[in-house]
Amino acid sequence: MHKILMVIRREYLERVKKKSFWIGTAVFPLLMIVMFGIQFAVMFVTPAEQKNIAFVDATGRLLAATAQGLDDKLKDGRREFVLVPEPVRGSLDETRRSLEPKVVAGKLSGILTVAEDIDSKEAFRFYAKNVGNVMATERIEKALKNAVVGLRLEKSNLGLDRKTLDAIMKPIDLGTFQVSAGGESKKKGFLQTWLGTFAFVMVLYMSLLLYGIAVMRGILEEKSSRVMEVLLGSLTPDQLMTGKIVGIGLVGLTQMAIYVVTAGALRAYFAAQQVAADWTSALDAFSPFKLVGFVVFYVLGYFMYTALFAAIGAVCNSEQEAQNLTTPVTMCLVIPMLAAFFFVNNPDSTVAVVVSMIPIFTPMVMYMRISVLTPPLWQILLSIVLMLGAIWLLFKGTAKIFRIGVLMYGKRPTVPEILRWARS
Predict the structure, then answer these.
(1) What is the 8-class DSSP label of residue 7?
(2) Which of 72, 128, 326, 419 could disulfide-link 110, Cβ–Cβ 3.0 to 4.6 Å?
(3) C-alpha span between 70 and 139 (Å, rounded)
(4) How many angstroms separate the CA atoms of 301 and 333, rounded?
């Protein structure tokens, strides 16, 4: 035990004493803020430019109402959308083709066509060089939809004028509130839920990946420099592996502790300042239960993934060799990130429940579920028990691989050989 503690102390102090550790700890949250800021700028901030759209209306009755619905203003007071009426020359397709050169030249932002039969499936079409501006497309669709509803009501002979119709079609502002298990309700929307969850999941992803790779690189460096042979003169392979994993794990836990304490302090500060309700709901991501859940699944995830990375480091001779074996392990972290939108929207679905019980995916998926809609306690406890069992089996297998592979040089063993070592 004394020798293991010496390895733990060496691995921990070697990293924590470096300035790069403290600089990285301080810079990482700033990079996260910048990353999210860029994403929001891309999603919600559009260039302040006027959009001239050719409006080809075969009905001849939708221009005014559609233009009225597109009343958004730019900062300089100009209208963001300007509908340029174009008469139908021949057919709609012929008219559209005659206008397309102006779109290509940048004189028009797009062409909006309306067929004479507004009830046909392809009555409304929008042509533009860039149809990826979702917000602009939705604004055009909404304005056109309201205009079409008005036209249909006029045809129905109900006697409704435009003013009455606008009052009927006036949009509503739907407030969303999350009801807790205790019956309390808090104002909370998708944006706050997504931001709080994704930020912590990103920290989980980056930390598990970086510290797992750090363990692997440490083993590879000591193998390549033959330091491993010297160390194993006074340590057993099991002692060395355990000391490395726990020592580097404490480095990561130190970093996580700094983040958790800071997050808790910020939550307490903003709660005391009685900030706006929208921001208060965002602070729910820093609740004590969620912070504890984050730490628990970080620790469990760390031991699971570092055991895998340690095994890879033991059987490889260089980082180039290790890349092929690290890809499947890395993908196990990437898959939950790619499916994060599904898990946030469906935290209690059968798929989410089942995937959160698969140990390799549990740290990230179960934390997503806890952050969005806290699952039953038995599911959380079951996932922890399953992870502990998986970690125990992994450590047994990794220890066997480590004993054999750590002193092997030359040709990298095949996957069947590695599995045979783990079962031996």
Answers:
(1) H
(2) 128
(3) 7
(4) 10
